[in-house]
Amino acid sequence: MDVSQQLVEELRSAHKVVALTGSGISAESGIPTFREAQTGLWARYDPQQLATPEAFLRDPKLVWEWYEWRRKLVGEAEPNPGHRALADLEEHVPGFTLVTQNVDGLHGLAGSRDAIELHGNILRTICSAERIEVEPSQTEVPPICPGCGAPLRPDVVWFGEMLPAGAMEMASGAVRDCDVFLSIGTSSLVYPAATLPYEANAAGAIVVEINPEETPLTPQAGYTLRGRAGEILPTLVEAAFG
């Protein structure tokens, strides 16, 4: 696809770039978006009713098994050209910050370093009481923390929970200081992440939306590129940096 030469020049000359990614880029690797219908055994469950502290207190076994199913999907997925293009972009831009709403760890597998994971990482396990990372070693479902005996849980942000300490502050600080902001594969509906492109806009950054569909951000974006991240990002990065 063709990309605006003006946008290519803006990206090439940028000293600081922030990229915010949402479920769309992971969907291109075969990972269902959170709100997509469940399949098989899980078809009768509403994911929003499972991803809460209350659900875990009520039925920790059910919630753990659902996340084990989701971990299996993630474990079978591979980074796509969109993930790899962002890792490549990081090598070319002096001040690059990657912020993701995804919990699948695919950015790290693609080579991105120090991504700000706003919603945690499904591949990590923590103690539900002490909130420290623990490597599960028992066959109990869910496993028990060897330190305090509390059930273990995935290290993800559930509905009604705060984001990881400092994550939003780091993201917001990078946004207020960036030259170009890329909004990639996100509906711009999930808060507080949805505030970031507007912060960038208010600070004078060039906001670029890369998404197949129109979103609430579209009217505010300086550039709108319609399509899949795995097709657009490699083309954009190649055009800017060769």
Can you describe what's shown?
This protein is of the alpha/beta class. The two termini are 15 Å apart. It has ten helices and eight strands. Helix content is 36%, strand content 17%. The longest helix has 16 residues, at 60-75. The protein has helices spanning 5-13, 23-27, 47-50, 53-58, 60-75, 81-92, 106-110, 167-175, 196-202, 229-241, and strands at 16-21, 95-100, 116-117, 120-127, 152-156, 180-184, 206-211, 223-226. Helix 1 crosses helix 10 and helix 6 (81-92) runs parallel beside helix 10. It has a six-stranded parallel sheet with strand order 3-2-1-6-7-8, sandwiched between helices. Strands 4-5 form a two-stranded antiparallel sheet. It is elongated and about 55 Å long. The mean pLDDT is 93.
Present the secondary structure layout.
Layout: H1 5-13, E1 16-21, H2 23-27, H3 47-50, H4 53-58, H5 60-75, H6 81-92, E2 95-100, H7 106-110, E3 116-117, E4 120-127, E5 152-156, H8 167-175, E6 180-184, H9 196-202, E7 206-211, E8 223-226, H10 229-241
Parallel strand pairs: 1-2, 1-6, 2-3, 6-7, 7-8
Antiparallel strand pairs: 4-5
Helix pairs in contact: 1-10, 6-10
